[in-house]
Amino acid sequence: MKALVIKSTGLWYEVKAGEEKLVARLRGKFKLEEKKLTNPIAVGDWVEVNPNEQVDGEWVITKIYDRENYVIRESPRKKGHDHIIASNIDQGILIVTLKRPRTSLGFIDRFLISLESFRIPGVILFNKKDLYSEKDLLKYEELKSIYESVGYAVKLCQFDNDVEEEVKELFRNKTSLLAGHSGAGKSTLINRLIPKAQQEVSEISNFANKGVHTTTFAELFFLESGSSVIDTPGIKELGLSDIEDEELSHYFPEMRKFLGQCKFHNCLHENEPGCEVKKAVGGAVSELRYESYLAILRTEDNRK
Ligand code: ZN
To answer: What's 70-231's CATH class?
Structure first.
């Protein structure tokens, strides 16, 4: 029977088949198929499960259905290997704020680049609007117009009490991957969106895992009206590890239309003569995003 993976610990998986939640394990042979991955199955995967004839109440994953997309990052434990964080994602929602503590533009752009590289649409939620001064609000308007013109949805919000309807609307009928620095409000949003009963169950299963694992795992939660969110506790950034210098501008949608028009085919859009991207800076390419591009280009830590 077909089931959705809603939690993965690496040892066992929690899957949902219809309304039922089951515990399933993987048969060993899958682990060898994709050698460069440290985990063969991720939250968001659709799998086929069959009862385990040897263990009562346990299920075995016998097949993984093709993924629409997925996000990976370099495994922190095994060099040269990737770890799949989640799959079959409709959108990535980044929670940021201009106050307490202000989220850096570099962080926002790195997240958006990752999403672009996985072909996942991006949404930016600016939280804590009640704390913004007049000046902050002007800054927000500037950023909103920049990011919207690039093609990202941008919303101003506040999760203190209830989540505004227009924010809830963003989640409707979609599977959203949530990300954000601690302090930006991600956990508050999750608390507001997810029915309490589900969270309690989750706390119990997290508690059951304590002492066995030190890592926290991605988990999929169901919201009202066919929506779900994937939370990735402990993961602040998706990786940019597979992005080469020459490729970086491909993940800036506003630069894409100029690519191939520069004088040099391997133009990095820094100081090369005849660079069409650089000519567009201040126009179709905002100065802020271009500066971010240069800063990421010059940072080697996280990329090849
Ligand atoms: Zn160029």
So the answer is: alpha beta
Average pLDDT of the residues in 108-137: 93
pTM of the full predicted structure? 0.87
Q: Ligand 1 centroid to 149 CA: how many Å?
A: 21
The pLDDT score that the predictor gives to residue 3 is 97
CA of 98 to the centre of ligand 1 (A): 32
Could you tell me the residue ranges of all domains in the chain? Answer: 2-64, 70-231, 245-297
Give me the helices (H) in the chain, please: 30-33, 105-117, 134-150, 165-171, 186-193, 196-209, 253-256, 276-280, 287-297
Q: Which residues surround ligand 1, an ion (CB under 5 A)?
A: 262, 267, 269, 275, 277
Low-confidence winner among 4-18, 71-85, 122-136, 208-222 (lowest mean pLDDT): 208-222
Distance 255 CA to ligand 1 centre (A): 9
**CATH code, 245-297:** 1.10.40.50
Q: State the average pLDDT over residues 269-297.
A: 95
Please answer whether residues 146 and 109 qualify as being in contact, where contact means their C-beta atoms are separated by less than 8 angstroms.
no
2-64 shares its CATH topology with 245-297: no
Residue 217 has pLDDT above 80, yes or no: no
Q: How many residues does the chain have?
A: 304
Q: How far away, in angstroms, is 55 Cα from ligand 1 center?
A: 60
Q: Which CATH fold topology does 2-64 show? A: OB fold (Dihydrolipoamide Acetyltransferase, E2P) (2.40.50)
In this model, does residue 188 exceed pLDDT 90?
A: no
Phi and psi angles of residue 111, each rounded to the nearest 5 degrees, phi first:
-65, -45
φ, ψ at 24 (rounded to 5°): -130, 150
Tokens 């209830």 correspond to what residue?
Answer: 162
Average pLDDT, the chain: 85
Q: Which of 86-95, 242-251, 271-280 has the lowest mean pLDDT?
A: 242-251
Taking residues 205-219, report their average pLDDT.
55
